[in-house]
Design goal:
The chain contains 20 helices and 8 strands. By secondary structure, the protein is α/β, with parallel strands linked by helices. It has an 8-stranded mixed beta sheet with strand order 3-2-4-1-5-6-7-8, with helices on both faces. It is 56% helix and 9% strand.
Length: 440
């Protein structure tokens, strides 16, 4: 996410940070490179023009030029402007005082609207609410089946009908059903097309007029860049939208849509899709994204993900095991599973300050997780709790049972032993050096 522009910004500002004194020509040169980087990232031309003008005005102020660390001050200015461009603060979905809160999802076919509807329902369910999904895309029977499948997967009811042929009538019936069933969130998945046309817009207007949604959210594929921005503007002009959800952000190295869409539509980005899995929908925080673009990491999001993944009671149990020196291979396997569930390792490491731009040459092989788990699963209960009995014949058996080599088994055992030593040092308060579980 934002890898391309982040790398370029890192190179540009590294030059400024190395200067003890910054002149106007230094800022002009840096901003010229920033302009090129933004345009290459497919950011809207007008947005780029305004952004450069604002940064230059603030960067030429006395506070920057006369600072002891002028390069850092310029980066601070750019960070502030990026935050403003992306939306200044997190924009939450407005809930209705009289349930249900009706949310209408709109967008073109192929943008990920149906999957995102289910992801949003899961998000609300985790918050303790009772969402219901509505299959209002009557043009594609497959869309109805897809939504029902996703609803079953996350344990959320889906309202659909093969008899009602009018989307507006179906949506109205869904609102009545939600009130009867005491669902406080109603998410309506509407039809999309491969392009904007009059029949599509007329249909969406009728649906919106009939149910008066609290929020109309436009779902856009971030990888389409300026096409997504232009389509969002047309949707906003014709039917009106309240916010934006950008999908496929994990595959968008440029970031042109995210950096342009709010300025052009004047509507906030509320969520971003960061992966295909049903749990990979994150609230959008402009300041955190700006920090990641500038290589400052995103520790807050990392902490939040960790808190969602690691149960407090489990963490306390693990702590006791560490203190009592009873940390087993089973414990190691469970912790690795939890790390994997947080998302791609590249994304996790990219949230750590200073690592974002260093990750481009790092080959993180997710298969290593699978290999380690297979090796541990091939051990007996006794072997998992006492690595000292793992002689040559046992290691051969484990390698055969896990479909790996004895070298692989030896490597996992060695890393486990190193980890145990590190944990003992942790108890003693000595300097720590983490063992390498992956070949970076």
């Amino acid at each position: 996410m934002f890898e391309s522009i982040s790398e370029k910004f890192d190179s540009i500002f590294k030059k400024l940070k190395g200067k003890g004194l910054i002149k106007e020509e230094d800022i002009d040169l840096a901003l010229k490179e920033v302009r090129i980087a933004l345009l290459e990232a497919d950011v809207n031309f007008k947005v780029v023009k305004d952004f450069i003008r604002n940064v230059k005005t603030k960067a030429l102020g006395k506070e920057v030029l006369e600072s002891l660390t002028p390069g850092q001050q310029v980066v601070k200015v750019v960070h502030g402007e990026l935050c403003g461009l992306l939306g200044s603060s997190n924009s939450r979905i407005m809930l209705s005082p009289n349930p249900p809160t009706v949310i209408m999802m709109v967008g073109l076919h192929g943008s990920g609207k149906t999957t995102t509807s289910a992801k949003l329902a899961r998000h609300f369910k985790k918050e303790g609410r009772r969402p219901m999904l509505v299959a209002c895309d009557l043009q594609r029977p497959a869309a109805i089946d897809q939504l029902i499948t996703l609803g079953n997967q996350i344990g959320v009811n889906v309202f659909s009908s093969r008899e009602i042929k009018d989307p507006a009538a179906l949506a109205s019936e869904a609102v009545k059903k939600a009130r009867i069933e005491a669902n406080d969130i109603l998410i309506i998945d509407t039809a999309g097309r491969l392009h904007i046309d009059e029949p599509l817009m007329s249909e969406l207007k009728r649906v919106k007029t009939g149910i008066l949604p609290k929020e109309t959210l436009f779902v856009a594929d971030a990888m389409t860049g300026q096409d997504a921005v232009n389509i969002a503007k047309q949707f906003n002009d014709q039917i009106g939208i309240d916010g934006i959800i950008l999908t496929k952000m994990d595959g968008d190295a440029r970031g042109g849509a995210a950096l342009s869409i709010r300025a052009i539509t004047e509507k906030p980005i509320k969520f971003i899709g960061v992966g295909e899995k049903i749990d990979m929908l994150d609230p959008f925080y402009p300041d955190r994204v700006a920090s990641r673009i500038l290589g400052m990491g995103d520790m807050l999001s990392l902490i939040e993900q960790a808190q969602q993944t690691f149960d407090q009671k489990e963490a306390e149990t693990l702590r006791k095991r560490l203190l009592e020196d009873t940390f087993t291979f089973d414990d190691l396997r469970e912790q690795l599973k939890k790390i994997r569930s947080m998302g791609p390792l590249e994304n996790i490491l990219g949230m750590i300050p200073g690592l974002n731009n260093k990750m481009k040459n790092v080959n993180v092989d997710e298969k290593e997780f699978v290999k380690i788990e297979a090796i541990i699963n091939s051990m007996t209960k006794k072997e998992k709790t006492n690595h000292n009995i793992l002689n040559g014949s046992r290691r051969k058996r484990i390698a055969s049972g896990s479909g790996t080599t004895v070298t692989d088994v030896n490597k996992v055992i060695k890393q486990y032993v190193e980890l145990k030593k590190m944990l003992k040092m942790f108890k003693g308060g000595k300097n720590l050096k983490m063992p390498k579980f992956f070949s970076f």
